[in-house]
Amino acid sequence: MGDPKGFLKIKKKPAGNRPIHERTDDYSEVEQVLNSEDRQLQASRCMDCGIPFCHWGCPVDNLIPEWNDLLYRGDWRGASERLHHTNNFPEFTGRICPAPCEHSCVLNIDGDPVTIRENEAAIVDKAFAEGYIKPNPPKIRTGKKVAVIGSGPAGMAAADQLNKAGHTVTLFEKDRKAGGLLRYGIPDFKLNKHTIDRRLKIMMAEGIEVKTETEIGKDISGKKIMAKYDALCLAIGAMHPRDLDIDGRELDGVHFAMDYLTQQNKVNEGAYVAYDNRITAENRHVLVIGGGDTGSDCVGTAIRQGAKSVSQIEILPKPPEQRAGDNPWPYFAKTLKTSTSHEEGCERRWSLSTLRFLGMQQRVTHAELEEVKWERLNGSFEMKSVPGSTEKIEAELILLAMGFVHPVHEGILTELGISLNSRKNIDINPAMVTNVKKVFAAGDAASGASLVVNAIASGRRAAKKIDEFLLSGNR
């Protein structure tokens, strides 16, 4: 490193967030930006630690000490090139990744890691602003054609890598615009959609064809795609949500979180939604069921819509404030996470099970909850009800944010006879190929719902296996 003692001289300085009273009036990104000088000083805190555990903790194997050193020295172009060597879309991970790299940072032993995620975002945004990132089409084409089905982070990464290898790539997306979960599942206040558009513009200029509003297995049959392309990559995500099979589930006002978030994102981009179909928290008591990131996104969206109150409940116990003894550094810290949305005004509760929904005139008005406790029996945890703990809370909009269980099977998967594993995800072998020859799978569709950075890593691995398959002469 240019300054191996930088971490002793410079204190951690996060960019911080826009004031709550300002940001809750719009859907602009919450996180602020440091000036270039301060950002370079933050990069100087990356110490000469010998073993870069941050690299070990990063799913895409980012060469973090290398590009932090280049950033510290003011070589923004070099830092961008080194960053893109392992990560196709650092502008995405730099905004929405939970940064397992920072959890693994040696400085995090004292709880003060390098601002790796923010440094990453700053490098790529500077590279776009200065024009360092330009279309660079492959000089030679192989003559092989690949269809990538699904334009989320896994599909985009696979398409980008395959195109760079010289194959002719078509990226299919069933919605109006490409981006998948990045565009329709993540609120604008976390990821401005211009960030997606500028990257797609580069990819298309490099030769990738993007076909939107085209659902394979419906608008175009799977058999027709199989006949036209030399290989297929299924990156359709894991969009089948976990549901609650309880009384009152059918009441108006109970919705899946992703339906709610997707609709608001479409409204933000100018889509018209009829009044009768609008899912809004305006002047309503909102209950979010599920304590993860999707639930947090619902909280922030409901606050911006003008909710009367917002509560978020989780069936699992409250995480500890500090690492538990069985969760040491450099592993990801399973501790309490307070998001910017939580800071904006939300009651959070844990160890609560939802018994039923109550309503009047087919509209939900309350949720009946029960406290639970978790006991370890025979090496596993078992949930038990707490007697006398039942309560009713007012809830006029209930959002189910309990995660996703597997990809949607209807359509391309059933048509092509794609085999599923025990978790009902696409079954693939180590070469990332399915039971159907020349059909590969990547991302959440094969792994189950996971992080955007894991999806990018999976898309890159799939592209490598597809490239090997095409160049081997197999058909």
Annotated CATH topology of the largest domain: FAD/NAD(P)-binding domain
Which CATH architecture of the largest domain is right? 3-Layer(bba) Sandwich
Radius of gyration: 23 Å
Strand content: 15-25%
Give the tally of β-strands: 16
Give your account of this protein's structure.
The chain is of the alpha/beta class and 475 residues long. The chain folds into three domains: 6-130, Fumarate Reductase Iron-sulfur Protein, Chain B, domain 2; 145-239 and 405-471, FAD/NAD(P)-binding domain (3-Layer(bba) Sandwich), CATH 3.50.50; 243-402, FAD/NAD(P)-binding domain, CATH 3.50.50. The chain contains 19 helices and 16 strands. It has helices at 6-9, 20-23, 36-43, 53-57, 64-72, 76-84, 90-96, 100-104, 116-130, 153-164, 181-184, 194-205, 222-228, 257-268, 293-305, 340-343, 412-416, 444-447, 452-471, and strands at residues 145-149, 168-172, 209-211, 231-234, 240-241, 254-256, 285-289, 309-314, 347-350, 352-360, 363-377, 380-385, 391-394, 397-400, 404-406, 439-441. A five-stranded parallel β-sheet has the order 3-2-1-4-16, sandwiched between helices. Helix 7 (90-96) packs antiparallel against helix 9 (116-130) and helix 10 packs parallel to helix 19. The longest helix has 20 residues, at 452-471. The mean pLDDT is 96.
